[in-house]
């Protein structure tokens, strides 16, 4: 890792805020929007992702991003790579012919869809989302892409919650990139720093 990468990681890490007991009791929510509220952290995030991808040297034909937070930075990465961005959305939001898959979440269940006419068989995909928790979302998205005959050559998240072992749900952990990892102990430690905790209206 270069000195610039280390500096960017520190900036990114310190821009994230925690929200204990959101959206449900017992969940410690990591708010990635903190990184987008600060242009320096935002720049650091994009530079870090591009630096990782350059190091991997993988050929990428399209970036597939997951609703909602994969939509914030996925298109920027696609633009930098000069490849299409393709959204995966929650049920009933995409027009035309779609493929769908049901999946389990850290705090519920959901269904995701992708337009079938956009990705051709053999397309090499970079799959992006903000966070890996239980892995239900990304595991399902990988399956959705593979079922269309595409190859998920890399899956990238900004944040990995280690305590939930989400990697176990991924089809290919050898092609999984994560920028920041948080153990349960890390989250507890950050939660002792009031600067890093969101003031909250939630019970
Ligand atoms: O690894 P998992 O346990 O599947 O959880 C991770 C997913 O949960 C969050 O999205 P959420 O479902 O809250 O939807 P949103 O981004 O539309 O708010 C997060 O942005 C990931 O997509
Ligand atoms: N703990 C968490 N923080 C932010 N987003 C999440 N999505 C699922 N679990 C999450």
Provide a descriptive summary of the structure in words:
- Residues 37-160 form the Phosphoribosyltransferase domain.
- With 203 residues, the protein is of the alpha/beta class.
- The protein has helices at 3-15, 33-36, 39-56, 70-81, 136-147, 184-190, and strands at residues 17-20, 28-31, 62-66, 85-90, 98-105, 108-115, 124-132, 151-161, 176-182.
- The strands form two sheets. A seven-stranded mixed sheet has the order 5-6-4-3-7-8-9, with helices on both faces.
- The chain has a single domain, classed as Rossmann fold (3-Layer(aba) Sandwich).
- The structure holds 1-O-pyrophosphono-5-O-phosphono-alpha-D-ribofuranose and adenine.
- Adenine binds next to β2.
Short description:
It catalyses: AMP + diphosphate = 5-phospho-alpha-D-ribose 1-diphosphate + adenine. Helix content is about 35%, strand content about 30%.
Q: Topology, please?
A:
Layout: H1 3-15, E1 17-20, E2 28-31, H2 33-36, H3 39-56, E3 62-66, H4 70-81, E4 85-90, E5 98-105, E6 108-115, E7 124-132, H5 136-147, E8 151-161, E9 176-182, H6 184-190
Parallel strand pairs: 3-4, 3-7, 7-8, 8-9
Antiparallel strand pairs: 1-2, 4-6, 5-6
Helix pairs in contact: 1-3
The protein binds 1-O-pyrophosphono-5-O-phosphono-alpha-D-ribofuranose and adenine.
Adenine binds near residues 27 and 106.
Main location: cytoplasm
InterPro entries: Ade_phspho_trans, PRTase-like, PRTase_dom, UPRTase/APRTase
Pathway: Purine metabolism; AMP biosynthesis via salvage pathway; AMP from adenine: step 1/1
